[in-house]
Specification:
Blueprint lengths: L1 H20 L2 H35 L5 H4 L11 H21 L5 H6 L1 H8 L2 H34 L4 H30 L5 H25 L15 H4 L12 H20 L3
Helix pairs in contact: 1-7, 2-4, 4-7, 4-8, 7-8, 7-11, 8-9, 8-11
Length: 273
């Protein structure tokens, strides 16, 4: 039975990946991401990395990046990766909310989810779609990181040996960062009727929950642990770390993902198809 569960999960996961890479809508989304990332890579990322190199060469006490709150960029041995890290922490969580919004909602609205569940199970559909979306995001993160590596090597080919460990650290950490956002969208998608509703509710819940919990923690410091409920609340701390050091806070997205997936499974089990 366990083998059958994973076989079904794999098939659903493959369908999700195919839906993103082999359909007109999926290909349009990928092309849009590629074009936007190309301009990010070509202009702000390359310009900021060049500015970091100039500041390091001058050995000045004042840093523009310290002034604007991004001094941690200088903790990276390769400036391009430092800039990529800061940009990716803002871009990929938001992208995750968009990409992962339609895990089961549209199938429920069309009535096809009932047909799928008749031949599988609700757990397989939930976890299969979640896994498929995570693989897609891992591929996008990997592609963005590799393009940054190409930018680094175009500047100095001798950096390849020192760049590869940082490259793997970036990919692993960013996958962990988007994990709870994808799990949150799996739970919301199991509840609402469309991807648009899931995206809207995610933004509203995330914003209001962050504001309410931060306010409570300010007036009652003992309630600070409630911040663990907010996906991505640790991003400001993670942004100050570099390379594999960021894994010090990896337990936070992992715990959040487990809780959110359990909540999504509870919703999926009780939701009408």
């Amino acid at each position: 039975m366990r083998t059958g569960f994973f076989n079904h999960l794999l098939l659903i996961c493959q369908f999700e990946i195919k839906r993103s890479f082999a359909t007109r809508k999926g290909l349009l989304s990928l092309v849009t991401f590629a074009v936007i990332w190309y301009f990010i890579l070509l202009y702000p990322l390359r310009f900021a990395a060049g500015l970091v190199l100039q500041e390091n060469g001058l050995n000045q006490h004042f840093s523009f990046f310290d002034f604007i709150g991004f001094g941690s960029i200088q903790h990276w041995s390769i400036p391009e990766f430092g800039v990529f890290w800061q940009l990716a922490l803002m871009i990929f969580p938001m992208l995750s909310i968009t990409l992962a919004a339609d895990q089961t909602s549209s199938d429920r609205e069309r009535g096809t989810l009932r047909f799928i569940v008749m031949r599988s199970s609700r757990d397989r559909v939930l976890f299969g779609r979640f896994t498929g979306v995570m693989i897609i995001q891992a591929l996008l993160i990997g592609a963005a990181a590799l393009s940054t590596l190409v930018l680094v090597l175009s500047r100095d080919m001798s950096l390849v040996s020192s760049a590869l460990p940082d490259l793997f650290a970036l990919i692993v950490n960013l996958i962990l960062i988007v994990l709870p956002f994808t799990a949150m969208m799996a739970a919301l998608s199991a509840q609402v009727k469309s991807a648009r509703q899931a995206t809207l509710w995610a933004i509203l819940i995330w914003t209001f929950m962050a504001g309410i919990i931060s306010g409570l923690a300010y007036y009652v410091p003992g309630l600070g642990f409630l911040k663990l409920l907010i996906p991505g609340y640790q991003l400001s701390e993670v942004a100050q770390l570099s390379g594999w050091q960021a894994l010090q806070l990896a337990y936070i997205p992992l715990l959040q993902s487990l809780v959110l997936l359990a909540f999504g499974r509870w919703i999926m089990a009780r939701q009408a198809l």
